[in-house]
Amino acid sequence: MHSEFEAALTAILLGAVHRFLSAFKVNAFNAFKMLFRLSENILMIS
Predict the structure, then answer these.
(1) CA dihedral of 16, 17, 23, 29, whole degrees rounded to 10
(2) Every domain of the chain and the residues it spans
(3) pLDDT digit string (tens) for 3-43?
């Protein structure tokens, strides 16, 4: 019983961590793209 509970908890935690990391990777990539476009615009203006 105890080990089954631990296994389920571990699986839930790993799933949550994986989802968080996937979302973070996508957000980081979008933020980088946005910064790159912003710096391009600044360079064009100056």
Answers:
(1) -170
(2) 22-46
(3) 999 999 999 999 999 998 888 888 888 999 999 999 998 88
DSSP symbols for 1-46: -HHHHHHHHHHHHHHHHHHHHHHHHHHHHHHHHHHHHHHHHHHHH-
Tell me the two tokens of residue 32: 């980088």
The model carries a pTM of 0.52
Both tokens of 39, joined, read 């710096």
Tokens found for residue 35: 């910064």
